[in-house]
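Shipment paperwork, digital attachment
Item: protein structure file
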Amino acid sequence: MVYHVDGKGISALEPASFDALNVAEADIEEWVIETPSILGEDLLVVASQYAKFDRTAERPDVLALDPDGKLVVIELKRDRADTTTDLQAIKYASYCSTISAEELQQDYRGFWNERRNEDDQLTPEDVGEEFRNFLGEDITTTEEGYADFVLDDRPRILLAAGSFGPEITTPVVWLEREFGMDITCVELEAHQRDDEVFVNSRRVLPVPEAEQYMAKRRQKERQQSRSSSRAERAITVLLEAGLVHEGDVVVFDPDKVPNDSEKSYDADDDFWRGRVTGKTGRSNNVEWQENGSEYSFTALAQEVMERATGREFNVNGYPYWRHPDHDMTLSELRRTKVGDIDW
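Attachment content:
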C-alpha cells in the first residue's frame, strides 16, 4: 500500500489498474525511455522497438545498457505478464548477443537524434563521451569518436509488468539458478488520488537469497578460471579482493563536486559520506550517512549532486567516491589494485 502524507494527516492511495487509467503499453514505454530509473536501477536507454535483426520483424520494447557494460533487453507488459513473456525476451536477448559496442552507439545516436531538433543532433564524439561517462572506466575512443569498449555478449533480461504469476516466476528462478541467466522481474503498480496518478516499481526477482546464491556461484567460476571479467560489478570485485570491506566509509571526491553546488563541501559532513554495506545487489551497495537509505554508488553520486545543485545528473558513481584508507577513488582502486590480486 502507498500512502500520502500532508499537514492534514495520512491517507491511503487507492490502487488502480493501468487499464482503468487508460494507460497503454506505449505510455509505459515512453516513461521508461525518459526515466529509466522507474525500473529501479541505473540504465542508459539505447533504443525502443529495436528492429535491426536479420530475418525477423520481432523487436524488443526497449534496449538499454547497464553500468557494467551489459546490454539489457527490456520487455514491458501493462497488465499481468502472459505465459510467453519470458520466452519472448529470451529470443530478443539471443538476437542482441551479436551487437558490437560501436553498432550499439550508432543505434543510440540514430534513436536519440530522431527525438532531437535538427540543430541539436548528436555527433559520434557526443555519443562516445556519453558512454564513457556512463560506464565510468578509462575508455579510449575510436577513430570515429565512439567509446572503445567490449560489449558483454550475454545480455541481461528485464521484465516489467503489472503482475507476475508462477508461470513466469518459476522458470525465471530456474533459468537463473541452473543456467546463470540474468533475469530481473519488476512489478509496476499504479495508485490514484483524485486526478493524480502515482506509479511505484517493486523488484520481484531475483530475491536477495537468489542474488547471494548467484554471487557465490560466480565467485566459484572466477576461481576456476583464475580470471575476472570487466562485466563483474566493481563493488563485487573490490569486496572479494579484500580491498573494500563492509562498514568502510567512503567520501565524495572533492574534485567531483559541481561548480554550481549550493552545499559547501566538508568531508566530515554526513551529506558527503557513505558506508559500504557489503551487499552486491544493484541498489544496496552503499548507505548514505545523511539519511540511512541504501543506494548503488551511481545512484548515490547522482542523488548527492542533484540535492546539492537542484539539477539532474547521469554519471557512473565509482569515480566519485574515494576510499580514505587507499586515498583513491573506487574506480582507481579497482583499476590499479585488482590486477595485483591472485584470483
